């Protein structure tokens, strides 16, 4: 943050409608504690954090915790709907592609996945705006409102994730199909449905859960560009504004938020993996 262009003190003074002079810069820098060495500034911030003082936004002049609290709901809303789309599409496409390897359906799914991975997110967002908001006028272009406002940002956000996750699920299923127990099940005449559910999905569940969990963090932290394009008032847009204005207190609390969310998602993932894989539960019980 210290190496980023711009002076946060100047931005602070502009937001306060105070004339920028050498004297006001020096006095404000001292009042904000920005004249001290970086390690001292950090320790002061940690000390205030432990006391429940998260700081005040330089640009908005309100407690940063209030700004983050307001932005969390729109981001969670966008992330939840995007994750539901991901959950309902990627596993199905990956399984269909894998069990129909080298078929016309497989080639179509792979072609769509390659396209989804290759298309830049910002370009996709603008194309969707031009088609559905400007030309057809059937969807709103920006802002937060009803469910219709979620459609374009959700599609833009989730498209590369669906494509990437479909590839990974297809790969995991194909690896399981080569295992001896799956081949034996097919030879024994086990129905295709039972082979997919009892043998392929069960054994491919761990990498699938891991991939989906990692996508949750991307949906929460990787939505900066999407929220900027669609003027979505969430964490991503707030973070982008904070970086542009050099709003240190706001940047710091948001980085802390991203870190805490990462730890929470990782812990939930580990719990789910242990629940799915009995071997891991047995190892934990025996200590081996």
From TrEMBL:
The keyword Oxidoreductase does not apply. Coiled coil: none annotated. It is a multi-pass membrane protein. Residues 72-269 form the ABC transmembrane type-1 domain. It comes from the Bacteria. SUPFAM superfamilies: MetI-like. Its main location: membrane. Keywords: Cell membrane, Membrane, Transmembrane, Transmembrane helix, Transport. GO terms for biological process: transmembrane transport. It is found in: Cell membrane. The chain crosses the membrane at residues 76-99, 111-138, 150-169, 200-226, 246-265. GO terms for cellular component: plasma membrane. Belongs to the binding-protein-dependent transport system permease family. This is Binding-protein-dependent transport system innermembrane protein.
């Amino acid at each position: 943050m210290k190496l980023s262009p711009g002076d946060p003190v100047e931005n602070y003074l502009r937001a306060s409608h105070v004339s920028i002079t050498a004297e006001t810069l020096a006095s404000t820098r001292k009042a904000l504690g920005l004249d001290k060495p970086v390690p001292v500034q950090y320790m002061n911030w940690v000390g205030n954090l432990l006391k429940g003082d998260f700081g005040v936004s330089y640009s908005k002049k309100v407690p940063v915790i209030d700004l983050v609290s307001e932005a969390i709901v729109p981001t969670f809303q966008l992330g939840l709907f995007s994750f539901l789309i991901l959950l309902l599409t990627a596993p199905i496409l990956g399984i269909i592609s894998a069990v129909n390897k080298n078929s016309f359906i497989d080639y179509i799914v792979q072609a769509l996945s390659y396209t989804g991975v290759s298309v830049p997110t910002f370009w996709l967002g603008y194309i969707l705006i031009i088609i559905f908001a400007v030309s057809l006028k059937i969807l709103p272009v920006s802002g937060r409102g009803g469910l219709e406002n979620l459609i374009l940002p959700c599609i833009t956000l989730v498209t590369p994730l669906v494509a990437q996750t479909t590839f990974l699920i297809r790969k995991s299923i194909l690896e399981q199909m080569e295992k001896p127990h799956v081949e034996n099940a097919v030879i024994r005449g086990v129905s295709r449905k039972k082979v997919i559910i009892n043998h392929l999905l069960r054994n491919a569940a761990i990498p699938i859960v891991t991939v989906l969990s990692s996508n949750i963090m991307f949906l929460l932290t990787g939505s900066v560009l999407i929220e900027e394009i669609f003027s979505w008032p969430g964490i991503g847009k707030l973070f982008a504004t904070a970086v542009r204005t050099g709003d240190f207190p706001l940047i710091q609390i948001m980085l802390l938020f991203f870190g805490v969310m990462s730890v929470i998602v990782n812990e939930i993932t580990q719990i789910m993996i242990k629940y799915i894989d009995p071997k891991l539960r047995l190892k934990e019980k025996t200590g081996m």
